[in-house]
Specification:
The chain is an alpha+beta fold and 123 residues long. The chain has 3 helices and 8 strands, in the order E-H-E-E-E-E-H-E-H-E-E.
Length: 123
Amino acid sequence: MRQPDIEIYLRDASQDAVTQWLGQTLGPCSPWQPKGKTFKCRAGDVPATWLPKAVGKWHSLLLESDTTPWEDDIACARAAYQALGVEIRCAPGGWQEEESVEDADRWMSISERGEAEILWRTD
């Protein structure tokens, strides 16, 4: 089932590289507009939010649409890793507030080491 939005975390990725990837994948990006600690743009028809250093060295990229080329976070993470060559983390599936804290700490890591489910405490 297609997720309503996509969120991935990128380690040490440059905003310029991400902008270029989004432009090639989703369509031309509008300039990033600062909104507090975040930056917002449109990549094609998809609203995007970039939060630098959301968790340590990890930047958050949120694509607020169900019309991306990816079914879910994992598919997007795989594509981002292929394009950018940096470690990507994402939730292994959609997460709901009702789920346990342990489930919230389950993440997928995609890197040169391959794909693996990991525990990542982000708080």
